[in-house]
Amino acid sequence: MPLTVVDHPLVSDRVARLRATSTASAEFRRVTAELSTFLAYEAARTLPVEETTVPTPLGVDAAARTLPERTPLLVPILRAGLGLLDGVLAAIPAAEVGLVGLARDEETHEPTPYCLRLPAELPTSAFVLDPMLATGGSMAWTCQLLRGRGVRDITALCLLAAPEGVRRVSDELPDVHIVTAALDEGLNDDAFIVPGLGDAGDRLYGRV
C-alpha cells in the first residue's frame, strides 16, 4: 500500500511531545506546525520540477531545478486540519488552499460535509491535511471529492494513522499516498486512535 511512515529523530521527538498530556494548546500548535513541515518535505519528494538556470553573483549561470508555477492544492479538513496548514505552507509558500469541513457522526463515525471551498480550476495534485487518520472516513470522502473534480495525484498528510484508516483509504483509493509520522495500534470503541494523542482539534483550539 502507498504508505510512508517518516522515521526520523526530529519527527519522533515531535510525536512524543504531541502525545504528552502535559503539552498545552500553545505548545501543541507550535509542535504540530513543525511536524507538518517535516511531513511536507517527505510528501513533496516526488513533486515535478522544472529544469532551468539562475544567474549567480559570480556572473555565471548555475543549473537549477524549481517547482512549477502551480504547486499542489492544500486542503485542510476543518477544523483540526488547519493546525497543519501553516507548517505545510512554510515548505510550499506558493500553494493555493481549499477548505473542506466535515462533521463526524458520533454514532456511525461517518463524515457529513458542512463547508466546501475549492478553487474553480483545480491543479492536478493536492495534499489533504488531517491530523488523525482514524476510521479513514473523512480522508476517503475528501479524496473522492477531489478525484471527482479531476485531481489525479493526491497525498494524505497525517500526524498519526491507525491501520483501520489506512486500510479504508487504500481500499477505496489505492493510488492515494499516505504520509504520516506514526502508525499506531488501532482504534478504541469510540473510534479514537490508540495510543494516539487525544482529540487533535480540542488540543489545538480548545473544546467546543
**What is the succession of H and E elements?**
EHHEEEHEEEEHEHEEEH
Helix content: 25-40%
**Strand share of the residues?**
25-35%
Biggest beta sheet summary: 8 strands, mixed
Q: What value does the Rg take, in angstroms? A: 18 Å
Structure, described:
The protein has helices spanning 9-19, 25-43, 82-91, 137-148, 163-172, 200-205; strands at residues 3-5, 50-55, 61-66, 73-78, 99-104, 111-117, 125-129, 132-133, 153-161, 177-183, 186-187, 193-194. By secondary structure, it is α/β, with parallel strands linked by helices. The strands form three sheets. Strands 1, 4, 5, 6, 7, 8, 9 and 10 form an eight-stranded mixed β-sheet that branches. Helix 2 (25-43) crosses helix 3 (82-91). The longest helix has 19 residues, at 25-43. The N and C termini lie far apart (36 Å).
